[in-house]
Amino acid sequence: MTISVIIPACDAEATIERALASLFRQTHGNWEAIIVADDRRDYAAFLSAKGVSDPRLRFASTGQVRSGCHHARNVGFDLISGAYVTQLDADDELASDRFETLKPLAETYGAAADNLLMLDEETGAELGTVMGKTTLLAMLDLADFMTLNAPLVPLIRRDHVLTRAPGIEFSEDVVANIQLIDRIGKLPVTAASSYCYRIHRRSMANTSGASERFERGYSDYIERLETGDGFGLQAANRRVAADGLIVKRALNRAFMDAQRAEPGLGFQEFVGRKS
User: Fold this and answer.
1) Using one digit for the tens of pLDDT, what is the confidence trace for 140-149?
2) Residue 124: pLDDT above 90?
3) How far is 204 from 32, CA to CA, in rounded Å?
4) CA 80 → CA 27, 62, 65, 151, 182, distances in Å?
5) What's the sign of the alpha-carbon dihedral 185, 191, 196, 202?
6) Is the pLDDT of residue 204 over 70?
7) How far is the C-alpha of 134 from the C-alpha of 70, rounded, in Å?
């Protein structure tokens, strides 16, 4: 297979068919999907009962319940056979031309991403794109990336694929993006959106106590960058990443203050108000 797609699945019965349908619509059809159960459920049997069957679907399990997306993705990394690797959350969707568009860029630059679109799962309302409105291909260095308020979902050439860093759960996608850009220098990001990231009330970022957990996570990561292993980054990029996370921690603290006054406020809504 050309492209390996890792799909962590936990309580995913309501949405995984939609995610897979977006894979089946890809104009570049040479892919495999590795569905990694993180809830000890048999997704092969579940999908078969729904009439969903395709030889490109493979199934694995963490053997645990809610061990985290980082762990599920690492289980998937051990099973990939593609020359390119990407991820798809079980409640998200891809545009039909995503692989066809990103693969040539990833071949040239080592990885490529898109102007990720965020949608409210309950209302279907667009919450914005990670890069805002643009018509140009962007080449993001690490300082550019650290200004974004959402992670990217890159298609990565296999020689640049790293497993998820141990001890990382909150913002694990952000840390993975940082490590990738450190390796390849600049990440091409298309102006068009081909990954639809659905935000819902039960997601990790919106659960009770999430802001406090992000506060602890940011503080731990900053300390690790400044005095620890630095996630293996080059020295100059450790400082860039640490400075960027300090800004993100300050934004999270401002969000915590705003939430105390307005308990129903969501993070993306808060960010939109500040833009």
Assistant:
1) 999 999 999 8
2) no
3) 27
4) 21, 15, 22, 22, 23
5) positive
6) no
7) 31
pLDDT confidence of residue 275? 62
Nearest to 113 by CA among 1, 16, 197, 172: 197
Task: Name the residue type at position 126.
Answer: E
What is the 8-class DSSP label of residue 159? G
Quick check: helix, strand or coil at residue 125? Answer: coil
Question: Edge to edge, what strands does the sheet with 117-120 contain?
Answer: 93-94, 195-199, 117-120, 126-129
Question: The whole model's pTM is what?
Answer: 0.92
Burial of 169 (0-12, 13-18, 19+ CB in 10 A): middle
- Asked whether the predicted pLDDT for residue 208 surpasses 70, the reply is no
Strand partners of residue 4: 32, 85
Both tokens of residue 54? 């395709």
Tell me how far apart the 2 most distant CA atoms of the chain are, in Å: 52
List the single range of 49-58, 102-111, 124-133, 199-208 with lowest mean pLDDT: 199-208
**Do the beta carbons of residue 33 and residue 1 sit within 8 Å?**
no
pLDDT given at position 210: 82
Tell me the C-alpha distance between 242 and 218, whole Å: 9
Q: Token digits for 218?
A: 């940011």
* Measured CA distances, 246 to 80, 226, 250, 255, 275 (Å): 35, 11, 6, 14, 19
Reported as a pLDDT band with limits 50, 70 and 90, residue 67 is very high
How many Cα atoms within 13 Å fall on the side-chain side of residue 123?
Answer: 7
Query: How far is residue 122 CA from its own chain's centroid?
Result: 20
Q: Are 102 and 190 in contact (CB under 8 A)?
A: yes
